[in-house]
Specification:
five-stranded mixed beta sheet, Endonuclease, Chain A, five-stranded antiparallel beta sheet, alpha+beta, single chain, 2 domains, HIT family, subunit A
Amino acid sequence: MEPSSGTDCPFCNPPINQVFFINDLSIGLWCDSPVVSGHALIIPRRHMGSWFDASSEEQAALTQAIGVVRQEILKRYPAEGFTIGIDDGIPAGQMIPHLHLHIIPRNLTDAVNPIGVARGIASKPVDYFKPREAPPVVRDAMPDHRRLSAGEEDPLLPQLLRHMRQAERVDIAVAFILQSGVAAIEEHLRDLLDRGGQLRLVTGDYLNITDPEALRRLYDLTQQPEYGDRVQLRLFQAGRRSFHPKAYIFHTQQGASIAI
């Protein structure tokens, strides 16, 4: 059964290699321009522009598909949370005039102090295509020595960056690397190296989650002549073995701090 077609609509006949779920009324597919790895879409088979153009049966099918798509994402990508939403109409940012739901896996490394979609709506025009800048590197008098980072009200990333700004050497062992994670810390890694610090990082290919482009960005650090051998990057080939570390060690003249 082919989806009902709209003129020149990319969602009416989506590439088969993007589709991973299909039933009589809806289709699940991987977004071809994801904001993070694992970004998926749910679309109705019938061409329509708005959620409010869908029949009650179609709305029910799209809603029920959310759980199915979430499970498909979790089979392939890490997710500590999800952003689920619809851009309905041009003022809301809809770019393709075929109704689609975004199902986006989220992790604490995606952004510093994430505020969510609704609170991100501004009262004045925003250029959504302007490249996002990493948070500026600001020195702290002393890093925070709290023993527990408790999640939503106390996210881990700001704690890691605070310690990184004081460190002379940083050791990182993580199961996988994504572009969103590299974007959050890359400027701080460069700051560490520009100060004469050392970086050792090991990651792996466990479950094929690691993003090759993220690896390339880290590899570029090893190719900077001014950093010499102060950057060491290793990739662990897990094969059928489990490989799921998440550890950060920050070395200073006073000792070391560890986050796991």
